[in-house]
Design brief:
With about 475 residues, this protein is of the alpha/beta class. It folds into three domains: about 140 residues, no CATH class; about 120 residues, GTPase HflX, N-terminal domain (Rossmann fold); about 210 residues, no CATH class. About 45% of the residues lie in helices and about 15% in strands.
Length: about 475
């Protein structure tokens, strides 16, 4: 799944909001200096001036292009840019007051001090924000890009990508479409480099790869089998216009990657606003869920410990969005040696492919040796699994951003290592606490290909409304224990 990027001046929203707040703060400080220490927004005259100043600043933001190339600007150039912006705002401000015959309402001293304070404060704030962005660019939170091109184009391409304005990605690997002639080592500028082969395609299917950028040389045909594999894996593709006529990528739009204009194709396109709303819902849900988890820990924790002394919570490495690993948390519902005993029980796995593990009356579950009158296990572990209470600690993963309320279930490392190319599409989005296949029968579905089909259907048809429907169905499934095990 690919998130559409903001266009034009909107992509500098952090700078814009910061500038607007800064100007209002300087307006207030100027009032303290020229008038009295108090709130200028409670006085009609200054309320009016503050609104006019805000409108003038918005007009300058929209039409003046003051933010173009802001990340690359040096300190001196930034000071000049802030001065130009402030002068434009002042000019509009004075012109507007003159037109409505209210020029005497404005204190010239107040306006001058506001302007001087703004130039100083905003220059410092912009410098800090640029430092923050550049520092973030070296963190783990950025996208992982695989570059596919020819050996001859590698130096210029890498330079253009890594020296781009507002970069939020790193190049994790370079794959060469041609046979290397001058390649003396397996890397360039510290980036792993290899020839594009079936083996290297298989490798990236089990690595953290968010997107692939294909810069196709004019003298080389596009490798169609590679395109098929990427589509099958659900990996977002950025490619040059030479493959524009390829009909396999219906969802396509023009974007910018580094200094290159590219065509982006993905299994699903979502807007930044959809992502923001989904994340906001996750944060609210995560906070509420963590509160309930705290209460449940007081009740369930002692019961788990008394029956099986050891940690109350179970942490396990799982595969997240696009192959990135994270640690997932649950209430421990199994004995401490559960993982060691799993191999001996694989013959009873209901998912015959071995790509997931499900079995009836799992003896590794805490207290499963205790049976009811129908011979069914009724231990504390079975109770918290049947009621899905073991999943509650994952609200912490949701709050952290590793997971979402709705998504696809994250596989274990050993399951991930067995995935075929077509299975990888499940992890082209952030994993979720619940999802399409969980509300479609959970334990009744024993064919992993059906799980993949349902997850692909969810990704291709994703919307905020679909998430809401799945959440409502999840509540019904949990309370009726339909499909639970």
């Amino acid at each position: 799944m690919h998130t559409r990027s903001l266009k034009g001046w909107l992509k500098h929203g952090d700078f814009i909001i910061m500038d607007m707040l800064c100007l209002q703060l300087c307006f207030t400080i100027s009032y303290w200096i020229t008038e009295e220490f108090g709130n200028p927004y409670t006085i009609d005259r200054f309320q009016f001036l503050a609104v006019i100043l805000l409108v003038c600043q918005l007009l300058v933001v929209i039409f003046a292009n003051n933010y173009t190339g802001i990340i690359r600007r040096g300190p001196f150039a930034e000071v000049l840019a802030v001065i130009k912006q402030m002068l434009a705002v002042l000019l509009l401000y004075i012109l507007f007051l003159f037109v409505i015959h209210q020029s005497l309402m404005a204190s010239r001293l107040h306006a001058a001090i506001t302007a001087v304070l703004y130039v100083v404060c905003d220059t410092l704030l912009r410098s800090f924000n640029k430092w923050r962005i550049q520092r973030t660019s070296s963190n783990e939170g950025q996208r992982s890009i695989v570059l596919v091109t020819s050996e001859q184009l590698v130096p210029d391409t890498v330079h253009n990508l890594l020296n781009a304005d507002h970069r939020d990605f790193t190049i994790s690997k370079i794959l060469l479409m041609d046979k290397p002639k001058e390649l003396t080592s397996g890397e360039f500028e510290g980036i792993s480099m290899a020839q594009l082969t079936e083996a290297t395609i298989s490798e990236i299917s089990h690595e953290w790869v968010d997107e692939v950028f294909v810069l196709q040389p004019d003298n080389m045909p596009f490798p169609e089998h590679f395109a098929d594999d990427l589509v099958s894996m659900g990996i977002t593709i950025n490619y040059t216009p030479s493959v524009l006529l390829d009909e396999r990528w219906a969802v396509t739009e023009v974007n910018k990657l580094g200094n290159y204009k590219v065509l982006t194709s993905s299994i699903q396109m979502v807007s930044p606003w959809q992502v923001i709303v989904k994340r906001a819902v996750d944060i609210v849900g995560g906070l509420v869920g963590c509160i309930f988890t705290g209460f449940l820990t007081l009740i369930i924790g002692p019961a788990i410990y008394l029956k099986s002394p050891g940690p109350i919570f179970f942490a396990q490495e799982r595969i997240g969005k696009n192959g990135k690993t994270f640690k997932m948390y649950k209430f421990r519902s199994m004995y401490l040696d559960a993982e060691e005993r799993k191999a001996a029980l694989m013959s009873q796995n209901k998912i015959q492919s071995g790509l997931m593990f499900k079995m009836d009356d799992d003896p590794r579950i805490i207290g499963s040796e205790k049976k009811d009158k129908n011979g069914k296990p009724k231990g504390i572990g079975n109770f918290i699994r049947n009621t899905s209470l073991d999943e509650f600690p994952q609200f912490f993963n949701i709050l952290k951003g590793d997971m979402s309320l709705v998504g696809t279930r994250p596989p274990t490392l050993d399951e991930w290592s067995q995935y075929d190319l077509g299975h990888r599409v499940r992890m082209s989005i952030k994993p979720g606490l619940t999802g399409m296949w969980q509300v479609s029968g959970r334990s009744e579905i024993t064919d992993f290909e059906e799980v993949v089909r349902l997850d692909r259907e969810y990704i291709q048809n994703w919307s905020l409304l679909l998430d809401l429907k799945i959440l409502i169905k999840t509540v019904f499934v949990v309370f009726t224990k339909k499909g639970a095990e």
